[in-house]
Amino acid sequence: NAEYSLPDFLSDEAKDMLARIFNTDPKSRITIEQIRSHPWYQFHRPETQNFYVCPPAVQAERSNIVTRNNK
Predict the structure, then answer these.
(1) What is the distance, to the nearest Å, from the Cα of residue 17 to the centroid of all Cα atoms in its chain?
(2) Residue 50 above 60 pLDDT?
């Protein structure tokens, strides 16, 4: 398995899901379907508008940069 460390502030559910994602054996690694049914994912639902990969202001600025660069 991969060697990594996780911050203490992560919940047990988050640590469990990450451990399954970081599994180096492709046959036993968690699938996308399993991730989406994982308790952590079900609670946080990244598809909802309340989940941000980065703060909304940073995301808005990045979107503006992409828009300007594509003109």
Answers:
(1) 10
(2) no
